[in-house]
Amino acid sequence: MIITVTLNAALDITYEVADLALWGSHRVSAVRQRAGGKGVNVASVLSTFGIAVTATGLVGGGTGAAIRADLDARGVRHAFGDCAGESRRTVNVVSTASGDATIFNEPGPVVTAGEWRSFTSWLDGLVRESGADVVVASGSLPPGAPVDAYAQIVELVRARNARCVVDADGEPLRRALAAGPDVVKPNLAELRAVTGVAAPLRGAAVLRRLGARDVVVSLGADGVLVVPADGPAYRAAAGQRLAGNPTGAGDAAVAAIAAGLARGHDWPRVMGEVVGWSAAAVLSRVAGEVRPVEAARLAAMVRIEETDDAGKA
Amino acid sequence: MIITVTLNAALDITYEVADLALWGSHRVSAVRQRAGGKGVNVASVLSTFGIAVTATGLVGGGTGAAIRADLDARGVRHAFGDCAGESRRTVNVVSTASGDATIFNEPGPVVTAGEWRSFTSWLDGLVRESGADVVVASGSLPPGAPVDAYAQIVELVRARNARCVVDADGEPLRRALAAGPDVVKPNLAELRAVTGVAAPLRGAAVLRRLGARDVVVSLGADGVLVVPADGPAYRAAAGQRLAGNPTGAGDAAVAAIAAGLARGHDWPRVMGEVVGWSAAAVLSRVAGEVRPVEAARLAAMVRIEETDDAGKA
Questions:
Q1: What is the pTM of this model?
Q2: What stretch of H or E contains A47?
């Protein structure tokens, strides 16, 4: 059983417009909406693969109700805690003329200290009662959440003998490292921002020294790198150049990591799935959607090689 | 008692962003939302003046629930019918740098024939049980609503011996005319589109020949013109040039017309209020809000004159 935590869950709204004009009035020709936020996206992918998962986090207001309703409609199990504030929306305006997108991100609800305490108790109960093996904590923090929110979650999860994957950045990631997460998954920009190091192997080594057990760095089109506590580092890359929409590729990668941890797969095997699932997300017509058959086909084509670049030290 | 009908009620969402960049990603610094749609706005204004009013129309889904919740919070009485589709949102992105706005309008729910029939029964019951004097039908039709929706409403209202004000345009307005509405209130562009006549007095006379009893034409900064069935035509204009936001001025004008009809005021007096309330909406800091003290002050300054331009014939 995997639990995903999304503290700033969202309702992702997509508007199609003929074209976008600054300061104009636009008739929206099509509206789509879908529960989102990184952890929710991870749960969606896992659910598509038939892997037992529950999405939790904090939601509130009418938008929170819409997030729950969408997950119900898609058959994604969820057990969110409540907050008094209104969950955030993201509005993604896509021009049907050019395909370009213009995005508006609401900040999200202000979480009070009491709501945060209630949520940590709620999460602790959920991990205990579900016997979860793996907890994934991903995405930005809502206003008001403590900056060490992910550190607290890592401690709570480890105290329940489950493993914790953190996909975050900046100070919340830095704080989480000290609590000893089992896996962190920065991309190159996030790695550089936290460590000050641009080279992925050396940067990953810094994250390990700061407390992470295994470090997976997503390298965009160049694939991924894993620097584990035990055994050699590996690089993995797709067997073909991919043209598509990278939205959701990172969440598909985190889903593959969580699935691999829960199933006890070794890193070379997990890395094949990380790249295959990400590649399937990139090639998908619907942003963030991953078709298992496509993911398996792409995973079989992944090139994996041990890497012991001097930069590792 | 006044009833306002809003068939395509909306949740009006305002986003503040530092500045708008085409194809960029924007952090929304402030979110405001408010129930809207023309009839809802008319009910809000009447409610601010302490005039008994009930907002009805069709709402559905989570956005429909948010529309009802906002009216509850603002103390505006409402009794909407339900539809299965999701009520529309409008997203108004305002740049804090320039004050300019970029607007996205969702199309609204597709109303089925069965939902439309249920609504007309619902409205008939509401008019009968409330003993309404005046029913206001304003704004665009949702997809699926019959093009003669306003004509049907006028007939229903007249059969209950109440008076009906229609603020619509295009074919729905043209159809409504044949049913004999007590007042229609086009602006100049709407008048020209329906009659093919650019001169307001002559255009209003055409609307009267097509079935409207009294015609009020809003002339923007030049005030308003009324061409009633009984008595002379009047023009009224604000006593000062107004700089501000014209959003909601038309709805404030319709609110003043409905209030005047309900109270049995004569046209010169109503015209003073039409211009005063509209002017208060233009000068308001919050779009569409009308402060009664300000509206009364401005109404007292309105210049009203009889007009018998040869064009009237």
A1: 0.89
A2: helix A38-48
B-chain residues within 8 Å CB-CB of A15? 91, 104, 106
CB contact under 8 A, A22 and B20: yes
Unique residue bearing structure tokens 């965009």 = A220
ipTM (interface pTM): 0.86
Query: Is A24 close to B102, i.e. CB distance below 8 A?
Result: yes
Query: Token pair of B202, please?
Result: 């002559």
From A14, which residue of chain B is nearest by alpha-carbon distance? B106
Mutate to test the interface with A, among B98, B104, B105, B110 (most CBs of A within 10 A): B104
Query: SS3 letters for chain B?
Result: CEEEEECCCEEEEEEEECCCCCCCEEECCEEEEEEECHHHHHHHHHHHCCCCEEEEEEECHHHHHHHHHHHHHHCCCECCEECCCCCEEEEEEEECCCCCEEEEECCCCCCCHHHHHHHHHHHHHHHHHHCCCEEEEECCCCCCCCCCHHHHHHHHHHHCCCEEEEECCHHHHHHHHHCCCCEECCEHHHHHHHHCCCCHHHHHHHHHHCCCCEEEEECHHHCEEEECCCCCEEEEECCCCCCCCCCCHHHHHHHHHHHHHHHCCCHHHHHHHHHHHHHHHHHCCCCCCCCHHHHHHHHCCCEEEEECCHHHC
CA distance B74 to chain A (A): 17
Measure CB to CB from residue A26 to each of B62, B63, B103 and give the nearest one. B103
Residue B289 has φ and ψ, to the nearest 5°, of -80, 140
Of A62, A93, A103, the CB nearest to B104: A93
Of A48, A47, A44, the residue nearest A67 (C-alpha): A44
B99 touches A: beta carbon within 8 Å: no
Given CB atoms, is B286 within the 8 Å cutoff of chain A? no
Q: Pick the residue from chain B with its C-alpha nearest to A88.
A: B31
Q: Whole-angstrom Cα distance, residue B154 to residue B179? A: 6
Tens digits of pLDDT across chain A (313 residues): 999 999 999 999 999 999 888 888 999 999 999 999 999 999 999 999 999 999 999 999 999 999 999 999 999 999 999 999 999 999 999 999 888 899 999 999 999 999 999 999 999 999 999 999 999 999 999 999 999 999 999 999 999 999 999 999 999 999 999 999 999 999 999 999 999 999 999 999 999 999 999 999 999 889 999 999 999 999 999 988 888 888 889 999 999 999 999 999 999 999 999 999 999 999 988 777 899 999 999 999 999 999 976 444 3
How many CB atoms are located within 10 Å of the residue A238 CB? 21
Report the gap between the CA of A159 and the closest CA in chain B (Å): 36
